[in-house]
Each structure stands twice: as C-alpha cells, then as structure tokens.
Write a structure and sequence with these properties.
Elements: H1 2-23, H2 26-50
Amino acid sequence: MAENKSTTLYQALWNSADILRSKMDANEYKRYLLGLVFYKYLSDKMLLHAA
C-alpha cells in the first residue's frame, strides 16, 4: 500500500514538473527545480534525524 502512495506521489510530482516545463524557459525552471531539490535534501535529513 505504501508503494502505491509513493508511486502516486511520484507521478503527481512528475506531472507538475511537466506543466512547469511547458510554461517557462529553462532559466526560470532551474530556480524552481533547485528549490525543490534543496527541500528534498532537508526533508531526507529531517527524516533521518527523527528516526
């Protein structure tokens, strides 16, 4: 069940990225992408700290 939620979340994020890519140039998209990558890094670190 957790894998299904993970797959659904992954697909939703991928679809969101496709929408962003279609509406902005690469320079603008890079700003959003770097922010998301940094947020993912912080989220992973927090999960490790909480465990």
